[in-house]
């Protein structure tokens, strides 16, 4: 009899709080987006699953001795997982298009306005009762506008760990929503004529240039913004391994097995921050709203900058490529290509959009460094 | 409200300083890449052996002879698969 | 001169205890079983090797700063390694046969009688002087009857870490011995006629069903047995990654590189528990004896349950498939197939046995959860 | 001996409660799977492009969908080989 | 305004010490050697990169919470990374040539004279003002003569962690320089006639012998030198996994993904020891000088031993193969082959040199064990 | 200077003891390998099934008929590999 009572008291049924049920529904929702809608499934599937595990009553996944606590403490609190992801992404990234047309960096710079404008917006939200974002919170939220998952997680783990779950979910969700968020903005800010512009073919880039490039980026970051060197450094290490041609087995492992392993754990660790008490509040709604604004402003800033450059440039620039400056590699570049093709069936902008696209990765890492240096 | 006003000013400063810095940094990187391109001309890519057959007239993806090592890889993959089939 | 003495004093020869020699022989014996007899080599080889390393005098593999101590503390004491193995096994498991014929779950349930009967047996052993198993010890020993390595290691690390070595060795050894232990029992409990029964072909199972299945299992475990959610949760995560079709690179890493890496360390860590003082005692003999009993009872219970079901079912059920309910995937299913073919050369039971086989995995995870909830 | 008797009772209770629970749990899962099968009918597998050739008259072993693990084995073998070409 | 000052104060420009610049130049130099000269790129690239990261002002890579500190503490201070590398190298090593011609072990023994003579030399350096090597320091430096990276790192992490950076860099640099250092010594100590000697073809070696060999080596190490069992044990585990034929998936992971992952982190961790205060001093110069001496003496000792053996042996022995006894697998064996071919266009010594080459790995692991037992 | 002299003696002793030990150890290993070779004769390699066709006159690796599904697997693996080459 006693056993049966003990057993009953150790069921989930006897211990559920309704908030946990809501959070499990959120987790299931993320799984739905990942599986049925193919929204950034590599991250949203483990995040969603982690959210479910985290909210199981009694099981203690995030308490001392719990699996998700180990994962979070070892990999996210230390910043190791996002940095390893960044190394792997560096090993997957080809900077050829950017080196061939370096002006595209300006688009990657402009799109970061999404970040800094959102920072301002997050502070403005404090005017509404119920919101109380510190400058650190606001910075961590604003980085969603960088459209770069690992950067957002890294910064949030340093500046606002309590908001990490909502920030990561927002970042990956909006990255997945790029094909829906960006086209209307792109079309609103350009006319048919501009969208039809074809761009000059890119020049061939030397192996030498590709090898030196990550080192040059690292050196500049060291000189001007050491706070960004963890992110930029690991990214450049990955890229150097890719391009140097003498450590192919390391590069291959960094962009396959290692990044896969880390992705599983990063997702679970992020999911462990989707507990009811940290997610079910007005702040999360604020973060989701601000994230959407950040993406939109970043896209607009990129397109407008491209229009400006188009006017002063002798080589034609299609303003659509500015939208790729938010990063969200390679989705944003593909969206640019698609919108370009709609206007002009012979206009393949993909390679041209890869330049601002990878520039956006650098841009948001630099922006994250600025925030760490000034706010952290 | 004083406090919020102050934070607003901080946030505004951050916005301006941040955007200026990002633009300055990436502009400098443009300069660096232009320099790199100039230096790069003195270090052309070594002429790759693999590219030669591309210029042969009859080449198509199907007709390219499969490199022996790939055949070996496939052979070993199959035996590897057979070996591993029974593994838990 | 002094150097020579120091050197002599640092040889193994000058420091051996005879028990360490015995344990090394045990380690070599495990290597022999793994290599020459192909008994679960993926686990028994690293376990055997770990047992040798653990018993080297002076070397201090299991003392502070020793390699095996790091491995044990980081991966087994925390439960992380068996959970990751479980995730990988989940990613390797196809539940199609079970979903097509869900009644087979009853066989997976019946076979767990091996566990609970052995629990009783372990307590009974206390009547013999020299044995003093607590209820926790007995539960950890009984789980050997689940025929599932990671589950046994996970439970033992929580309930009876001192017995972990013997329990893991017994579990994997008997799993390897399934083709020897099971057939006599199967033949004793069935007649020629029963063994000849052919079963209806299984229906096709949707991708949709396969995707929802792991989530359904997880939800039920959350509702009724949160204590089992670490095991069941990681298993279902692996299975979901496998079936969802959108994270193939994660699924592939989970069932290849990640599980391989973890297997090496898990084996070494288990081996580190095969030290003389924890293994060379009457309790180990008791554990080995109880393990054999557990397997036999589990097999018998599965076969008898299948006979019962065969009588009340309108579709024919070959009672041999009940033996697969102990799990030991996929060995037990193959044994069923082989014994079936001996009776009827056209009777391919493999797919039919996979249902109870994977049901056994769930069954023993549930049984482990019950033990954790009531005894842990 | 009292103590042992008590433990025996505990063990016996565990046996009964445990088996009942396991059976109850897995029986419920049977129900759940039956429900799942019913719902599943509304979500048939998308008609895969690869399966189309099955309906062609000349179908042979060649057209059987290739087991995923074989594809994986070969793919990984080839990339593995390429990786290792330059290996120490 | 304040922000700008804060930002300026957080630039590298405002915080550089000139020593950090020098160390970054050293890091870049290592990258140059790795990429342009293909000097042991798998290690020197991450080491060089780690050196750059370590010396970034403010960034704090090696301070509490810094990425490289985590890496060093978790993997190098504990000895785990070099041991895993050793396991992987064991899984890559074929002992067939050595088992077929076991006398070659004497060459692997002789070449270790490079280690012990250098130990004496390091103590002798103390006569020069500015040097103050303890016996532990001297032992850690001397192991460079073993021409085996993981052994050097493992020993240095135990005996002289402050010198680890310089020792690892010296070890890998000289291993890469084997084709330059060894040939003049080999030619100076042999005459044309000797270099032309062709050796008898090696006998076929059984699978059985190959399986028992690593176990035999381990058993001998256990009996006579437990201090060497971490290194030798992991090496033998790797080799056993390779040869036993029943755990191919573990062996494959050990020699591919696992060793790749560990190599990246090992390199970064070693690089973290290349900080200005630990590298820019007279001791580093002394270590570099001693390392070159160690390699030269080891090579000479190997060749002279081979000449001696050639005189007393009935089967012909080409004295060049003695040079391969320093290990540096497989580079030293290739150098032997090349120098042999120069003297006799039909003389393929590669397989014959593999025997002493892998013997050198065992020899230096044994030497490391002796040093640990007597000095550690 | 006394101290240095002492360390020198220690270093010298280490050198002698170390070299003697290394030689003794590896010499013993030579003996062990010789023993191993003797024992090994009683455990010849199993005659591999794969090697049998080698002795057939017309057999070559190419002529063994490759099972059709494996051919399909290879084809799809290669195209899969080509597809994945450019994937993120
Ligand atoms: Na960005
Ligand atoms: Na089971
Ligand atoms: Na050596």
TrEMBL record, chains A, C, E:
<keyword id="KW-0739">Sodium transport</keyword>
<keyword id="KW-0406">Ion transport</keyword>
<comment type="subunit">
    <text>Heterotrimer of an alpha, a beta and a gamma subunit.</text>
</comment>
<feature type="transmembrane region" description="Helical">
    <location>
        <begin position="356"/>
        <end position="375"/>
    </location>
</feature>
<feature type="transmembrane region" description="Helical">
    <location>
        <begin position="258"/>
        <end position="275"/>
    </location>
</feature>
<feature type="transmembrane region" description="Helical">
    <location>
        <begin position="287"/>
        <end position="305"/>
    </location>
</feature>
<keyword id="KW-1278">Translocase</keyword>
<feature type="transmembrane region" description="Helical">
    <location>
        <begin position="163"/>
        <end position="181"/>
    </location>
</feature>
<feature type="transmembrane region" description="Helical">
    <location>
        <begin position="42"/>
        <end position="60"/>
    </location>
</feature>
<dbReference type="GO" id="GO:0005886">
    <property type="term" value="C:plasma membrane"/>
</dbReference>
<feature type="transmembrane region" description="Helical">
    <location>
        <begin position="106"/>
        <end position="128"/>
    </location>
</feature>
<feature type="transmembrane region" description="Helical">
    <location>
        <begin position="80"/>
        <end position="99"/>
    </location>
</feature>
<keyword id="KW-0812">Transmembrane</keyword>
<keyword id="KW-0472">Membrane</keyword>
<keyword id="KW-0915">Sodium</keyword>
<dbReference type="GO" id="GO:0015451">
    <property type="term" value="F:decarboxylation-driven active transmembrane transporter activity"/>
</dbReference>
<dbReference type="GO" id="GO:0016829">
    <property type="term" value="F:lyase activity"/>
</dbReference>
<comment type="function">
    <text>Catalyzes the decarboxylation of oxaloacetate coupled to Na(+) translocation.</text>
</comment>
<feature type="transmembrane region" description="Helical">
    <location>
        <begin position="211"/>
        <end position="237"/>
    </location>
</feature>
<keyword id="KW-1133">Transmembrane helix</keyword>
<keyword id="KW-0813">Transport</keyword>
<comment type="similarity">
    <text>Belongs to the GcdB/MmdB/OadB family.</text>
</comment>
UniProtKB/TrEMBL annotation, chains B, D, F:
<dbReference type="GO" id="GO:0036376">
    <property type="term" value="P:sodium ion export across plasma membrane"/>
</dbReference>
<comment type="subunit">
    <text>Heterotrimer of an alpha, a beta and a gamma subunit.</text>
</comment>
<dbReference type="InterPro" id="IPR005899">
    <property type="entry name" value="Na_pump_deCOase"/>
</dbReference>
<protein>
    <recommendedName>
        <fullName>Probable oxaloacetate decarboxylase gamma chain</fullName>
        <ecNumber>7.2.4.2</ecNumber>
    </recommendedName>
</protein>
<dbReference type="InterPro" id="IPR023424">
    <property type="entry name" value="OadG"/>
</dbReference>
<keyword id="KW-0472">Membrane</keyword>
<dbReference type="Pfam" id="PF04277">
    <property type="entry name" value="OAD_gamma"/>
</dbReference>
<comment type="function">
    <text>Catalyzes the decarboxylation of oxaloacetate coupled to Na(+) translocation.</text>
</comment>
<keyword id="KW-0812">Transmembrane</keyword>
<keyword id="KW-0813">Transport</keyword>
<keyword id="KW-0915">Sodium</keyword>
<keyword id="KW-1278">Translocase</keyword>
<dbReference type="GO" id="GO:0015451">
    <property type="term" value="F:decarboxylation-driven active transmembrane transporter activity"/>
</dbReference>
<dbReference type="GO" id="GO:0015081">
    <property type="term" value="F:sodium ion transmembrane transporter activity"/>
</dbReference>
<keyword id="KW-1003">Cell membrane</keyword>
<keyword id="KW-1133">Transmembrane helix</keyword>
<dbReference type="GO" id="GO:0005886">
    <property type="term" value="C:plasma membrane"/>
</dbReference>
<feature type="transmembrane region" description="Helical">
    <location>
        <begin position="12"/>
        <end position="37"/>
    </location>
</feature>
<comment type="similarity">
    <text>Belongs to the OadG family.</text>
</comment>
<keyword id="KW-0739">Sodium transport</keyword>
<keyword id="KW-0406">Ion transport</keyword>
<dbReference type="GO" id="GO:0008948">
    <property type="term" value="F:oxaloacetate decarboxylase activity"/>
</dbReference>
